[in-house]
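Table S2 (continued). Query chain:
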Amino acid sequence: MTKAAWHARTAPEVVEKSNRKLERWHYSVNGEAIRPPCPTSLEQARHLVAEYMQHESCVRLHSALSYIAPMDFLSGLAPQIWAERNRRLEQARSERAKRHLSIALCQGEVRNSPTGPQP
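Corresponding output:
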């Protein structure tokens, strides 16, 4: 390995970025999995960390993955999840528009509306 390549791998900013991610993970594990229940044995602590990792990988929606669980993302389910999300959003939009239109009709405010009935 050349000196330049070695420096690129051990440059302070590279080490700092990778170290920051690891430290953040340890902070999250300690704050969310270990400290609240306060395990009394090493085995109990291992069990708590395993449960935390299971939740993080299979249940929790990650914003970096467009709010999809990592296991679903790695399984290739992201396109189906996004399609289902878009379908539900479109359905909610149309129901909301119908509800607003019916409220406006009941209140008699639709006369000048481009979508409502014209006199």
